[in-house]
Amino acid sequence: MVRVSIIILNYNGRGYLEKFLPVLFKSVSKDLAKIIVADNASTDGSVEYLTESWPDAEIFQFQKNYGFAEGYNIAIKRATTEYVLLLNSDVEVTPGFLEPLVKYMESNPKVAACQPKIMQLSDRSRFEKAGAAGGLIDALGYPFCRGRIMDYTEVDSGQYDNEAFVFWASGACMLVRRKDFIDYGGFDSEFFAHQEEIDLCFRFNARGRKVGAVPSSVVYHLGGGTLNYNNPQKTYYNFRNNLLMLYKNLKPKHLVPIAIMRFFLDYLAALVFLFKGDFANANAVRRARWDFIKMKSRFRAKRRANLEVSIAKSIPSAYRGSIVFEYYILHRRNVKRMQKLN
Asked: Which of 145, 185, 218, 317 could potentially form a cystine with 132 if both were Cys, beta carbons 3.0 to 4.6 Å apart?
């Protein structure tokens, strides 16, 4: 019985489909999962390639580019299986990677979503930035991962080989119960791209659901396939969407002090970019702050709706300190060591 829809959201990513789809088809049992490519109106021949080369792949062909968030919302609503696996087009899976994820979900009914161990494709000994061994968040709302803090990624020496509840699962490779995804509102389409999965997992955590990391499942992520990690547009979305996420989900007693601290820290980040001569990224931070202010009024209803159903007494954070302080002042790079400080 097919229980999982593996959904790859594609926009002009034919090269990635040619490289990674053959591995995916070899690694997944047809009895367990079907493969769907949701195409955001690509113009590079992606759909033609799929039609000619992979007739077993189901194609959801959109008439415009809905972005990551809304593209997945539409595709997941159209899917019919119990589980959906969100998979970036630039991810190389490994044989049997899906079974441990499904088994984990079956054994943990309170878990809404989980992720595998995500490693770098270019250096398979290191964790990849977008998820690593499970996503966390600090007391000021900055996301990081088991195996990655800021831009530093750890070498995998088995230090995160335990199954664990985490704060968020990476959209690069996330298995989620389709009913939970829909019932909890899916991705916020106004995010367009970046941190929409953290926002969704915030809602899971706040309402009593859990998110898991399953290290017995391993995939390799190229990373930066849509936007390079240093791209100013990526910086813009990360800063803006992180602020929107906190505004939507934090209770007033937490939101006010965090907002004050983030005002200074975000502009400090812009100054650092300026001192490095990176004017584009400095301006991206400035634009993110201003657009967040302009968008707040549209998010008030979402904030009220989230807080009305939240049962968590405080931000469900895996780390109560500041990764900015740990990283830049104490020069700590090992997340496992940081967690022991709690």
From this structure: 145
